Every structure is written in C-alpha cells, then in structure tokens.
Amino acid sequence: MKRIIGYFIAAIIGGVVFAFVFKALDNREQNLIKAETEKLAVVPAGYSSHAAVIGPDFVDAADMTVHAVVHISAELQQKNKVYNDFFDLFNDFFYNPQYRYNHPIVATGSGVIISPDGYVVTNNHVVQEASNLEITLNDRRSFKAKVIGTDPSTDLALIKIDAENLPFLAYGNSDEVKVGEWVLAVGNPFNLTSTVTAGIVSAKARNINILGEVSAIESFIQTDAVVNRGNSGGALVNTKGELVGINAAIASNTGSYTGYSFAIPVNIVKKIMDDLRNYGEIQRAYLGISFQEINSQFAEEKGLKNVVGVYVNEVLEDGAASKAGIKPGDIIISINNTITNSKSSLLETIGTQRPGDKVKVTILRDGNQRELDVTLKNRNGNTEVVKNNKIELLGATFEKVSESEMQKLSIDHGLKVVNLEGGKFASAGIREGFIVLYVDKEAVKTIDDLKYRVESKNGGTLFEGIYPNGQRAYYGVGI
C-alpha cells in the first residue's frame, strides 16, 4: 500500500514538473514568434503603410499612374514585303506608286497623358505612317487623336485629343534615378484597363542600336519590369508616381519579354515634348565634335593613364566646342557635372539642351583638368530657333540636302523628306529620303520655295526628285 501511495505521489510531482516545463517552453515559443512577427512588420521609411509588408508598397504609385496611361489604336496601310521586294524597282520605274498598299491594318500601343488638356506622349514607332489614331482612356472613353509632332531620332511623338480635366502624370527627374531603384512599368496593351508590372532599374545610359539614325539619341533606362508588345509608349514611374521614362523596347529574340526592357529617360522626353508644343520642331543642340569611347586598348594606344571620359577625335570649325577652346585629343570627362564615360551618356546630356544654352564641359588635356563654358549651337551653326519645316498638306517634314550628299548625287539643290505622317505624299507613294528637286519643272531650293509652289497650285502637281540611292522618281500629287 505504501509503495502504491509513493508511486501516486511521484506521478503527481512528475505531472506538475512536466506542466511547468511545457508552459515555459510554450511561452518561449510564443515570445520567439512575436519577435519574428515584429521584425517582419517593420516597413522601411518612405513606403506607404497600407499593411505590414515585406519590401516596397506600390499601391499609391500604381493608383496615381493607371488613369493617366492610355491605349492607342493606329490604322495604317499594310505593305506586302515579299511583293514589294520583288516589284519595287519595276513599279517605281513605271510610275505606279499605289501598288505598294493592300488592306489597312491596326497597330496598338500605349501613351501617357502629360497635361490635363489632352497632350499625350508615346513612341514615334507607335504612330508613324498612321492615317487614323484613336485613344481609349482608362475609363473606356474614346477620342480621335492628331499628331502634333514626332522625333524619330529619340523615338518620341506628341499627340493630342480634344478633352479637358484629364488625369496626367508629373515629370520626375531621370538624372536622379539610381540603379537598383524600384520602378513600375504601366501600359494599356489590350484596350482593357492599364496593366502594372514592377522591377528595378538594371542600368542607365544603355545604347542598344535600334533607332538606326546617325543622329539618334539612345540612352535608355534598362529595367527588369515586364514589358510586352502594346506597352510601347507606356509609363515608367518611380515609387512616388512620377514619370521617369517612356517604355520603348524589349531585349528579346522572340518578340516577347525575356528579361529586360528599355525606357527613354524623362529628361529627354520633357525637352522633346516642350519643343514640339512650343516650336513645332526639335531645337537640337550640337557640341560640334566627333568622339569615341575609351577602353583599355585605346587608352594603351594613346598613352592615357586612365580609362575615363570620351576622346575628342575632331572639332568642327566654328562649332560650339571650337569656339570654347576644345581641341582634338582632349578627353571630356563630364558635362554639367554629369559623368560622360560613354557615347550615350554624352548624347543624353546634350540632348536635354537647346541651342544657345551654356554647359560646363570638364576636360583632361595633357593630364591636367580644365573647365570650359560652351555655348551650344543648332544644326545651322548658330543659336537661332530652328523653323518648322513641316508642310501639313503634304504630311511631310523636310531638311536641306547636305553638301556631301549633293556631291554624291551630282545635284546642286533640293529638299529631303525626313519624316512622313500621312498626307498627300504618303498617299502618292513617296517614301522618306525622297529629295524634291522640281515642282512642275520649277526648281525647289528652300522650304519657302516649296511652300510657295504648293500653296499656289490647285489640282495635279508633278514632283520630280531623286532617292539617296540615285534612283530618279516622278510623282503626281493632287493638291
């Protein structure tokens, strides 16, 4: 009996001890869980606090952006490439410009409202050659749009709809964008509502050689935010909801997103949009040099101590750089305190300036650093506002033919078509690059000549000219 009572007392004591130990362990586990939960609930300063989250919160930025991003539907004439490649020579020779066009097709893209009165920025490749543009807002309202101006060298275009009190995005500062910073890509590719994706800035000042023009300015912001077909012209925004870029391209072998996308920096966008609104023509500034990037091999060949900056090969006589004292062999290491270690970074910095603007250029010469004040010039070698060389009726923008091209083609005058946006010329089959020499047998030497010839005509007009490959062409255009 005593033995049984002893077992019973021992069991009670053991149970009390076990209960105490279990309670202690449970309290310790609860405290650990609480501590870990408190750690996870800490949100970095500067992010919204809708809920306890790990990482940035994009809710506010997305809400500020989606209503300012639009869907663009562009109707254009379809071209049969196989047919054109085979018959181009013969049809041009026999004067049949209408052969190229089959049935109209519709291309789509995105755009960003930048003012409450209906100005929209998008890519030039979204609207080029379009005969009809329709904009659909995020609230499903639709409007016809007209092209205010385009700039193929930056792949940007400004279009306009007749509407008021629209939501719009404020410009940020792309110079302040940092590699590793979170960004949102917002587009409206499916004509439903705006689509939002997120990523980080992977690199800046990327040149991917897609614009193909000698004067092209490529200095893209590279991100890993998902961008696909139809997102072209959409917004790249920071976590404050500020516009920092216009999405333009993806790196892909398939045509679909495979890892990287590229956006035009907003500082370039802002400058181009202001030019198109205020002048109707891009006020492009030129430094007046030819230059190349410096790598280890080049530095060794030239006996350079460091691989920094860009090397000045030539300086244009009477150009902006020449006037400021820049010489061949100088190394430009910064412009307005922005490092210039690549072609794209230099072109981006100059691309945000206008003729007449002064920039501070820091150079290395014989190992010594100098600062020079440079007054930038326009393509004509002065600081005057460049006139709009677009003739609305013809739907074309013109420029004077360079001396070297005139010599090559054995001509002594002419105006080259540098951009077509739908109009009499496009309808007649005239292509970009066509050089107008005569209108109804009268020579055309200046834009004023051409405007006078066109405005004084009524009915069929004969345009005679030549293409850069030397092929002569004649087009009958109804004025």
Plain-language structure description:
- By secondary structure, this protein is α+β, with helices and mostly antiparallel strands.
- The protein has four domains: 1-42; 47-282, Beta Barrel (Thrombin, subunit H); 289-375, PDZ domain (Pdz3 Domain, Roll), CATH 2.30.42; 390-478, Roll (Pdz3 Domain).
- Helix content is 25%, strand content 33%.
- The strands form four sheets. Strands 19, 20, 21, 22, 23, 24 and 25 form a seven-stranded antiparallel beta sheet that branches.
- The radius of gyration is 31 Å and the shape is globular.
- Mean pLDDT is 83; it is low at 35-49 and 79-101.
Write the layout of secondary structure elements.
Elements lengths: L1 H39 L18 H8 L2 E11 L1 H13 L7 E13 L5 E4 L1 H4 L4 E5 L5 E10 L4 E6 L20 E6 L7 E12 L13 E4 L11 E3 L5 E9 L8 E6 H13 L10 E5 L2 H7 L7 E6 L4 H5 L6 E5 L2 E2 L3 H9 L6 E8 L2 E8 L14 E2 L4 E5 L2 H7 L5 E6 L3 H5 L6 E5 L2 E2 L3 H9 L4 E7 L5 E7 L1
Antiparallel strand pairs: 1-2, 1-4, 2-3, 3-6, 4-5, 5-6, 7-8, 7-10, 8-9, 9-12, 10-11, 11-12, 13-14, 14-15, 15-16, 15-17, 17-18, 19-20, 20-21, 21-22, 22-23, 22-24, 24-25
Counting DSSP H or I runs of 4 or more residues, the number of helices is: 11
Largest sheet: 7 strands, antiparallel
Helix percentage: 10-25%
CA gyration radius, whole angstroms: 31 Å
Oligomer: single chain
Shape: globular
Percent of residues in β-strands = 25-35%
Number of domains: 4
At the fold tier of CATH, the topology name of the largest domain is Thrombin, subunit H
